[in-house]
Amino acid sequence: VMVYDAAGQLAAEYGGTVMGAGTQYLTADHLGSTRVVTDGTGVPRQCLDYLPFGEEIGQGVGSRPSCYGIAAEPRQKFTGKERDAETGLDNFIARYYSPVQGRFGSADEPLADQDPADPQSWNLYGYVRNNPLRYIDPTGRECVTLDNGSKGDDGQGKFCKDVTDANQKKRPDVTVRDYEPPSPLLLAVARGAQQAGPVVNALAGVTLGFVAGAGIVAGVPAAASAPSFIPQIASFAGKQTARSAIASLGLPAAQAAAAISAIARATSTSSIQIIKQGQDVIVRIARTGANGYQVIESVIDQAGSKHVVQKAYDAANALVHYDPKK
To answer: Per-residue pLDDT tens for 39-69?
Structure first.
């Protein structure tokens, strides 16, 4: 027998399997899921762990000790909901939820918790926008997030739609600049980096600024080869060479550190393009795929502030995806 208070919180439980004599305490994680049961002296009597959607992980998985033996008690498991030992379903008040499937057993009320701007909310059987590590569903009808990772007195937090809208508003306005798409040289290096043979750096031994506009000016400093409003571009097939080029530019410390941090995104199959445009430095990282290529572009000012955009191009070099990240 489960007894709940006026706020819907479990107040007492009577009957069931006795886990041990004396008072015992349930300790929950940030989602409200029971993670450990301790006795009055603080000794763990049972440990619980879960897959992202709530399926329990038992003893022996990932070297978990005997403390993780799966048992019917305590009944309060994933997000603190009561789990039925016979069916394995969790009681979410309005509906039953299957942690094995990560789906509710019955449909949500149409338009009750659906957001036209969030396709993850359109599945009436789906659980918390398919993001169970961040959101919870206290009633089986509402996807919410907990403020500051802690549960409020009423067990409620912000609605998922409000969180999504707030995150969208945090994104900076995008200023469209007159930067050119990735140069053919960058794409050639990117594609060459994924071939079986060794990669030849097209600008090996050349310092940044030697590519001004469409021409290559060997051995001439950037300032002398082109005005500041014309981008000076250099491409590299490896992170170490790109870092050395950044170090040779004499940038302010914050800007140089941010540029080196942006270069860290590159992988062994990526190519790196560094562009000096006025006082800004642009780091472009490209990687080809089966149907085109992806570019992560970081525009860094002298204070070290970054605006990051992820782009995708198809095989015809047409822009098919544009996503400001920061």
So the answer is: 888 888 899 999 999 999 988 898 888 889 8
CA dihedral sign of residues 216, 222, 223, 227:
positive
Q: Tell me how far apart the alpha carbons of residues 176 and 249 are, in angstroms, rounded to a whole number.
A: 25
Query: Among residues 274, 235, 228, which one has the least CA distance to residue 255?
Result: 274
What average pLDDT does the segment 154-173 reach? Answer: 59
Distances (CA, A) of 222 to 71, 165, 189, 212: 70, 44, 22, 8
Give, in order, the Cα–Cα distances in Å from 289 to each of 192, 264, 293.
12, 20, 5
Whole-number percent of the chain with pLDDT over 70? 69
CA pair distance 293, 231, nearest whole angstrom: 22
Say what the pLDDT of residue 141 is: 86
For residue 273, what are the contacts with CB-CB under 8 A and spacing of at least 6?
182, 183, 186, 233, 234, 235, 236, 282, 283, 284, 285, 286
Q: Would you tell me the crossing angle of helices 239-247 and 253-263 to the nearest 10 degrees?
A: 170
Tell me the pTM: 0.47
**What would the pLDDT profile of 216-250 be if each residue is shown by its tens digit?**
333 333 333 334 434 456 666 678 888 888 888 88
DSSP 254: H
What are the tokens at 57? Answer: 């992980």
- CA 272, CA 276: separation in Å to the nearest integer? 13
Rounded to whole angstroms, the Cα distance separating 239 from 257 reads 14
Rounded Cα distance, 200 and 193, in Å = 8
* 107, 109, 111, 114: CA torsion to nearest 10: -50
CA distance 206 to 193: 19
pLDDT given for residue 200 in this prediction = 37
Q: Give the closest residue to 141 by CA, choosing from 101, 185, 93, 196.
A: 93
Q: What is the DSSP string of 62-82?
A: GG--GGG---S-SSB-GGGPE
